Amino acid sequence: MYVEFDDFRQSYVVAVNEIRKFIRGKKFLAYGVMVTIMFILWTALPFLLGESFNETYGEGRIIPIYLSFMFLMVIIGATLFASSTIVSEYEERTALVLFTRPIKKTSIFLGKIVGCIIVGVLFIALYYLGVAVILQIVDGRIPNEFFKSLGLVLVYIVSASGVSMLISSVLKKSSISAVLTFFTLAMIFSMVSFVISTAGFDPWFMLDQAAHELVPSAFVDGYPVIPMLHVGRAAGVMAIWFVATTVLAWLAFIKREF
């Protein structure tokens, strides 16, 4: 299979159209509202408790608290945007029109996954930007752990989108794809990791275990940290999961017929 410049141009067009479709849809608004509400709630927490900001978020508690639900936020984003992007084309029969155009399936697939990733990154980046502002106001600095977490969460968005695309590429109903995507990322991976751990092995290679490094869990001198060794391993595991699931999703998509 030869890849030409026009293939990338077609992928770009598909990605742009996919992003436009998301922006015009209710999922985009719903996810934006959810992310905004979460940020507002964490920011309003000191006032709800009748405390000052420093009393609630002092001693390095801003990052662990504000990012405590980041794992779930990414999963919800992947469920909303990536889980139906392939299967909906077959369910709504729009692929019948799309496949008659002079465009390769590979270009369609690349455009769709890129569009999903960009939308997910947009919301999470805006949330992290808000956290950065809070850090600057309260602590007067943005620690390295913030950037470690940001880097890991961006890789997790990519890997979660890969898993979602794989599920979307093999199922026939978008509703089932969304439910299975959510439970796979939120529960099934964790259940498998628990079984592996119970058997006496370290499930470090599981996607959910790598994603646990998004939020600092260790403390040094009272400040939350993410060890660099954990960062490198987690990023590598998530990258491998992305490559593996994306390749499988692509193979399923190019071979799929009505």
From TrEMBL:
Coiled coil: none annotated. It is found in: Membrane. The keyword Nucleotide-binding does not apply. Residues 62-251 form the ABC-2 type transporter transmembrane domain. It holds the Pfam family ABC2_membrane_3. One of its GO terms (molecular function) is ABC-type transporter activity. The chain crosses the membrane at residues 28-45, 65-88, 109-138, 150-171, 178-201, 234-254. It is a multi-pass membrane protein. GO terms for cellular component: membrane. The keyword Transcription does not apply. Keywords: Membrane, Transmembrane, Transmembrane helix. This is ABC-2 family transporter protein. It comes from Candidatus Methanoplasma termitum.
